[in-house]
Structure formats: C-alpha cells, structure tokens
Fold this sequence. Notes:
Blueprint: H1 13-26, H2 31-35, H3 53-66, H4 71-83, H5 102-110, H6 124-145, H7 148-159, H8 168-187, H9 194-197, H10 206-209, H11 212-219, H12 228-232, H13 252-287, H14 291-315, H15 323-331, E1 339-342, E2 345-348, H16 358-366, H17 375-381, H18 384-396, H19 408-436, E3 446-447, E4 451-452, H20 461-464, H21 466-478
Antiparallel strand pairs: 1-2, 3-4
Amino acid sequence: MAILGSISSTIPSFVAVVSALAIFILRKETIFEALSSFSKPSKSETPVEAADETGTISKLQDLKSIKDKHDAAKVLAELIEKDGAGAWPPKANHTSWPRALQPYKDIYLELNSMLPSANPSLDDGVNEERRNNYRSRMRKLFAERVDISQVESLLAATEAGDWDVLTRDAYNGFYCAVAVCRHAYRWATIPVVKIAQREKVVDFPPELEAPWPYLQQNFGVTAESGNNTANVLHNFDESGERIYKINVGLSDIVQNSEEIFFRMFYDLEVLAFPIYLEMVRAIMSFYEGDKLETVRHLEAITFRLRHLLRIFYDNLTESRVAHSVWLSYVQGFQGWGVGKFINGEFVKYDGLSGNHVLFFQALDAFLGLDRYLTDENMDRYIPARQRELCLAMKKYGFRDQLKGAEEKGIEEEIKKIVNHMKVFRAAHRTRVMPYLEQPAPERLTMTAGKSVLEGPSTKDTKEALKVLDQMLLDRLKLTV
C-alpha cells in the first residue's frame, strides 16, 4: 500500500517552503506542537482514545435528524446506514455468521502460520514449492468444508434485500474474510517474492470465486483484488480487535509494525466521521445564508483535522512502524498485480493504496480540488456509496462561490484547512521514501497500489520509485 513522498527547483516557491517546513517539523518529537497551538491530550491518551463514544452516538442522531433536509446529509446517512451497518467506520461482525460461511474465517486463521517466513528465500524453486504447498492446503480445506450452493444462496438472498439471513455487519465481516483469503492465496507467501510477482493470472479456488461477484456488486466495485474497505476497515471488530493478521509467529517488531500501520487507517476514519458531519453542516449553513454558522463549522473541521493528522504524524515513524520490516512484511500482502481476460482483452488489477482512503478524497472534493483517481480506478476500488459522498461534497462545496468582504471569514478558514493538507502532503512525501527504499532482494520494486514498478531497463530502486514520487509531488502542487 502506498502510504498516505527532495523538492526540485521547478516547484512553486510556496510548495518548496511547505516542504522545507515539513522536513523541519519531522525532525522534532513535538511535531503536533509545531502544527497547532491548542492543548493536546495527555501522553496516555491518543486522539482516537479521546473520542467520546457518547458524542459519536449524538452525532449519528444529529445526522439522522437532518438527512431529509439536504442531499449531502442524505448521502452520508445512507453510507453509514448501509455500508457502515449503522456506524462509521463500518461495523464488522466476525462471530455471528451463518454456519455455511464460518469456514472462510477458520481456514484463513488455520493457515496463518504457513503464510509468513522470517527468512525469505531468493531461490525461485524454493519459493514456488512453498507457495504451492500453501495454495494446495487452502484449496483442499475449502473443498472439504464449504458448500458453495449454500454460500451463494445466502448472498443471493441479501442481494434480493433479505438482510435477516445475514445482517449488514456480518456481511461486512464476511466480505473481509473472502478478500483476505483471496490476497493470501494470490501471494501464498510473505514476503512477496519475484516468482509470485511474475504471475499474470491466478486460478482461484471456486469457493473464493463464487462469492466475489455478489460482494463486489453489493459495494459497487469491480476489481478482482480487495480494497481499503474490505481488507482494512472491515478487519476490525466492534471491540477494535484486528482479526486477520499477516505475520503471526514472527518477531515483535514485525507484528507491531503491521498492527500499528493498519490501525492508522481505521483510526483515521474514526476521527473522520465528525468531520464528514461538519462538512455537511457547513454546506447546509452556507446555502441557508448563515455565514457565521458556516465559519463555526469550518473552524470545527480545522480543529478536528489537526487531531486526525496527528495519527499519521505520531505513528508513521521508525519507532512505531519500522523501516526495516514495512516493505517486506506489511505492504506486500495488500498488493495484487494480476488480472483476467475480459472479452478477449487482458485486464490487470492493482491492490490497496492510500489514495483509496475515503477521508482524503471527501475533503479534497469539499475543498474543490480535482480528483486524482481515474473514473476506471474509482469504479474498481472505491465503494459506490463512498464515491457518491465525494460527488456530493464536490457538487455542494462552496469555495468557488466565495466573493466579497462578508465571506472573508469563510475564505480564511478554508485556507487554514488547505494549509494543513499542504503540510501533511509534504510531510508524507518526505516520510514515505525511507520505507519504499529499503532493500528487499526477494522481490521486484512494487507498491501495493501501483504493482511492479521496475522493468528490464530499470537501473535501481530510486529510479523505479520516480513515478510514485512524481505522483506525490503532483498532488502536493495541486493542494491549493
């Protein structure tokens, strides 16, 4: 997964200043103090831990009370009610499933210790034997334990609108189980190895093929690979426990880096929900002509955004997510890089990317910034109701309508939000490269979201990563 990347002389001066500021800030342990002056929680209290559950419930009730008053509120409410099973981040039940679905969870967990290797081989023959053993075992267990007709019957019922046979939170949990099983089968060993990267098409067990169209249709995505919602957000149960882990049995530094990294993306959405609501409220207030109330909601967004970005600043550090293990043991599983033939044409799919995170897409849309994913990639990897929320934010965002002194307060508050995002994107670009530049001789240069980046003529890792670095730079320059 490309994480949420040397500034050249061609960059506009403001971007260069922001980047230099980010580099300076990154050297300080008190990073958040450099970004804001408000008092922060105690050291034992992270922004997510400080989130008030009662407050979240009241915000859900607030959203319910306004969902019929504006289209943006209606779109957000539908996302939470349906995809989120009544909450955001989405609720995922991993225990109360119909008996026919239980083997998917059991098989992944049963084979957990077979997937990672503490000492990956550089020998293609050794790696292929290891991968064949994993795939054979998974295929055998699925054939023995899963009745495909029963699985399809349950999913067909939900597709027809019968959510009594499989509740929405259980559906989310099952979606995750199938997605992570597909990713585990696709790679069949962690770290990812070159012989796996050279594959073009994978013959999945029928038990992993049969449910996938139902699940993807429900969420309105088309990729053969998983996505941030299925693989990351749905992988946390209601108590906050992450269910399907990758590196079971390996060192603490590997397992802790994995846990902290993926929890960042879940925690981002925990703190994002109140911001979504504030964006909706700001939109409603603006079109009602209440400029003071619009400013108040924008101020709340600015305040909450600083808390949210602190999740990144505090956790994407060498001491929390180790440079030495992230590339080989954390990122690779979420990649994809294989495809299938559709109407005689080969279509390749990518894996997860930080670009798929809903919050940053929705905030960019609200700010009137251009989208950075193509229509094709939005349809492949971003669930339909998340796309609809971004479209609503873009449609009703009012930044381009500001004019006159009476709206100066609104304009100034939006500038503060944009400046926070500039610093974040400059910092992100600076932080990501030490992770991606780590040696991983068992594999070709790859990001989860862009697949293999090097070809026969590629000189080294730095050259292979130029495409990603340019993408990060372009996004920074567009954040204005």
